[in-house]
UniProtKB/TrEMBL annotation:
Residues 52-150 form the Rieske domain. Gene3D superfamilies: Ribonuclease Z/Hydroxyacylglutathione hydrolase-like, Rieske [2Fe-2S] iron-sulphur domain. It catalyses: CMP-N-acetyl-beta-neuraminate + 2 Fe(II)-[cytochrome b5] + O2 + 2 H(+) = CMP-N-glycoloyl-beta-neuraminate + 2 Fe(III)-[cytochrome b5] + H2O. It comes from Equus przewalskii. Keywords: 2Fe-2S, Electron transport, Iron, Iron-sulfur, Metal-binding, Oxidoreductase, Transport. Belongs to the CMP-Neu5Ac hydroxylase family. The lineage of its organism: Eukaryota, Metazoa, Chordata, Craniata, Vertebrata. Its EC number is 1.14.18.2. Coiled coil: none annotated. This is Cytidine monophosphate-N-acetylneuraminic acid hydroxylase. Sialic acids are components of carbohydrate chains of glycoconjugates and are involved in cell-cell recognition and cell-pathogen interactions. Catalyzes the conversion of CMP-N-acetylneuraminic acid (CMP-Neu5Ac) into its hydroxylated derivative CMP-N-glycolylneuraminic acid (CMP-Neu5Gc), a sialic acid abundantly expressed at the surface of many cells. Pathway: Amino-sugar metabolism; N-acetylneuraminate metabolism. The gene is LOC103541420. Pfam families: Lactamase_B_3, Rieske.
Length: 615
């Protein structure tokens, strides 16, 4: 199938991605973005095995559903419960027999093979007869833009198994992993150094996120010494232009590797003013050889394939798995028993529900929702670690804080998971060694694999090292945002039509009221307050008389104007907590939010031409 931007079904979970074929989206500068040449190999792709219409999807029953693709004659099983959907081919892994309903199963979770009576629990995709034998290969379930369902198969499903290598003994100090802050790790791998996701200075998501931990004082020197950098995706807590600007001042040619996502990771490089000249875009599911001992492979996320990635790094046969922010990395298929696994854990990386009001969104409802969702995330991560059985697990990529005084409410409301709580949960259910990192702490993989109790296996930062930040340099970054408030563009009310025409979202029955506000989300004196009818992309003075969904979005004037002026994605507004929202009815309008968070044009509006026409 052709490459697509899709959305995956997450019942009660994160925002979904919609289906739209994508042509060439990124005009790369020849000297900056390089497609990496690889040995003859097959890039990981996806194939649609079954497409259910919206009516067929709506009629799926709770429990086991037997499905058939009438065109191909192939059979599938889909299991549905309140929280998720799971699917597989209707084919026993033993000798390819067909599954039927298991009449001895009163819980509605298992099926029986017609050949040898093997039984599969489709709620867990594990065979229960014979017990402990196999796990069923799982398909990816995704929702299309019309609320139909797609069953997808990754090919190859386990690309890391190509050219397998047996683990070799590691000398002490040969492989060291140093935590810097948030999702940034500094890896020493033999005589090579690799860095993950360097956000080490400045804010993320406009002004909403700030670093919780104080990075080691030599962080810039560490970056400059790196042989290569991996950046997982375009969100600014992973792709930090303030950090990269400092790096580019010393090493503009440092190799930076990103996955070949539909929305290019560095889509905004030209606008950023950061002079990086050696960005390498690599295909999914193919080993990238660094030297004879070191290689890595970038994999796509099954829920956000158009923007999110994860990585496997392998040194002398020892794998390090970093799933970063992926909701369902590689469609849920991951290597087991890796040497070291790291993943996000904290939650709270969304404006929902803290920035919503009206209807059910009372403070009590928000608090209970947040508590429930954080517990679900903890349990999910603990189950994932138990299933994958890494030798060592490290929770990271969740160490941020809403430290600006104007975001005090968010900071107090947006409770995040405690990494130690997750690690304790993991240790209750498995023998996996856990590591809660502190800035500057170093894990010696060779020592830890040989003896997890070795006192030199993890070297903590020196006594007296500052762990948590207690001050942030807000000024320079707020100055950049505030400069947009008085920009000449906004002297002309016709900017509204110009902007939304550029954005390109229409033919959707939704009316949105946009209100520019001050710090406290009260109307900004002299600010704009307007309606956008996305059915015909008009800008009425009053709401239309037809039946229509309605959203009211209050946005801090400095951030919304900065976003508009520079053609940025609305993640800065929504994930950055810079809006307050009400909606009637209480429905998530996926197509609208997905467009403004993912699918805006890759080049900003032509404000120069706009201003000429305004004269």
């Amino acid at each position: 199938m052709g490459r697509q931007v899709r959305r995956a079904l997450v019942l009660g979970g994160k925002a979904e991605m919609d289906v739209q074929p994508v042509e060439c989206m990124f005009k790369r500068r020849d000297k900056v973005h390089h497609k990496v040449a690889t040995k003859p190999s097959i890039e990981q792709t996806t194939e649609i095995l079954l497409h259910l219409s919206p009516d067929e999807a709506a009629n799926l029953k709770e429990g086991i559903n037997f499905l058939r693709n009438k065109k191909t004659g192939k059979d599938y099983i889909l299991y549905k419960n309140k929280s998720r959907l799971r699917a597989c081919k209707n084919m026993c892994k033993h000798q390819g027999g067909l599954f039927i309903k298991d009449i001895e199963d009163f819980d509605g979770r298992s099926v029986r093979c017609t050949k040898h009576n093997w039984k599969l629990d489709v709620s867990s995709m594990k065979y229960i007869n014979p017990p402990g034998s196999f796990c069923q290969d799982e398909l990816v379930v995704e929702m299309d833009e019309g609320n139909g369902l797609l069953l997808l198969e990754l090919n190859p499903p386990n690309p890391w198994d190509s050219e397998p290598r047996s683990p070799e003994d590691l000398a002490y100090g040969e492989v060291q992993v140093t935590y810097l802050t948030h999702a940034c790790m500094d890896l020493k791998l033999g005589d090579k150094r690799m860095v993950f996701d360097p956000w080490l200075t400045g804010p993320a998501f406009a002004r909403g996120w700030w670093l919780l931990h104080e990075p080691p004082s030599d962080w810039l020197e560490r970056l400059c010494r790196a042989d290569l950098i991996y950046i997982s995706h375009m969100h600014s807590d992973h792709l930090s232009y303030p950090t990269l600007k400092k790096l580019a001042g010393r090493r503009p040619d440092i190799p930076i590797y990103v996955g070949n996502t539909e929305r290019p990771v560095f889509w905004n490089l030209n606008q950023s003013g950061v002079q990086l000249t050696n960005i390498k875009v690599v295909p999914f599911g193919i080993w990238q050889q660094v030297d004879k001992n070191l290689r890595f492979m970038i994999l796509m996320d099954g829920v956000h394939p158009e923007m999110d990635t994860c990585i496997i790094v392998e040194y002398k046969g020892h794998k390090i798995l970093n799933t970063v922010d992926c909701t369902r990395p590689n469609g849920g298929r991951l290597p087991g028993k890796v040497a070291l696994m790291m993943s996000d854990f904290a939650g709270g990386a969304s404006g929902f529900p803290m920035t919503f009001s009206g209807g059910k969104f009372t403070e009590e409802w928000k608090a209970q929702f947040i508590k429930t969702e954080r517990r679900k995330l903890l349990n999910y991560k603990a189950r994932l670690v138990k299933d994958l059985q890494p030798r060592i697990y490290c929770p990271f990529a969740g160490y941020f804080v809403e430290s600006h005084p104007s975001d005090k409410y968010i900071k107090e409301t947006n409770i995040k998971n405690d990494p130690n709580e997750l690690n304790n949960l993991i240790k209750k259910n498995s023998d996996v060694v856990t590591w809660t990192p502190r800035p500057g702490a170093t894990l010696d993989l060779g020592r830890m694999l040989k003896d997890p109790t070795d006192s030199k296996g993890i070297i903590e930062p020196p006594e007296g090292t500052k762990i948590y930040k207690d001050s942030w340099d807000f000024g320079p970054y707020l100055k950049i945002l505030n400069a947009s408030i008085e920009d000449e563009i906004f002297r002309h009310s016709s900017w509204i039509k110009e902007y939304y025409t550029w954005a390109g979202f229409k033919d959707y029955n939704l009316v949105v009221r946009m209100i520019e506000t001050d710090e406290d989300f009260s109307p900004f004196p002299g600010g704009y307050d307007y309606l956008v009818d996305f059915l015909d992309l008009s800008f009425p003075k009053e709401r239309p008389s037809r039946e229509h969904p309605y959203e009211e979005i209050r946005s801090r004037v400095d951030v919304i104007r900065h976003v508009v002026k520079n053609g940025l994605l609305w993640d800065d507004l929504y994930i950055g907590f810079q809006t307050r929202l009400q909606r009637d009815p209480d429905i998530y309008h996926h197509l609208f939010w997905n467009h403004f968070q993912i699918k805006l044009p890759l080049t900003p509006p032509n404000w120069k031409t706009f201003l000429v026409h305004c004269e």
